[in-house]
Amino acid sequence: MSDQGNAKPWGVVYKTTLDKLRIEQAMSNIRTGTGHTMGWRDTAETLLEALIPDDIEANESPEQVLVRVEATTQPDVGDAEVFSGAELRKAILALKRGKCPGLDRIEAEA
Question: Which of 78-100 are b and which e, b meaning 16 or more Cβ less than 10 Å from the residue's Cβ?
């Protein structure tokens, strides 16, 4: 399933994510390495394991290692300058609605 998501980006993973999988296309069982799933619970568990694999640090690419390090390391920013309420208000009003947040992840609609 994970390989299929990479090889066929508009396949099952895409359709499931966007709710585009029609009822008549829904899977009641899927093939596994040892046979087929039996029942909806077994099928759902197998899909979840394939689509959301365990977080295993030993299998990470160099890019994933870098992301993990950056996400868990607090940057040394030193002392921030004091700002006034008026400066804060001006910055908030300057945020454009409907735009993606920047690196600071501040959203205008929040």
Answer: eeeeeeeeeeeeeeeeeeeeeee
Burial of 54 (0-12, 13-18, 19+ CB in 10 A): exposed
Residue corresponding to tokens 């990479």: 6
pLDDT in the model for residue 23: 60
Q: What pLDDT digit, counting tens, does each position of 46-73 carry? A: 888 888 878 888 888 999 999 999 989 9
Whole-prediction pTM = 0.37
In the chain, what are the helix, strand and coil shares in percent, each to the nearest 5?
Answer: 45, 5, 50
The 3-state DSSP class for residue 36 equals strand
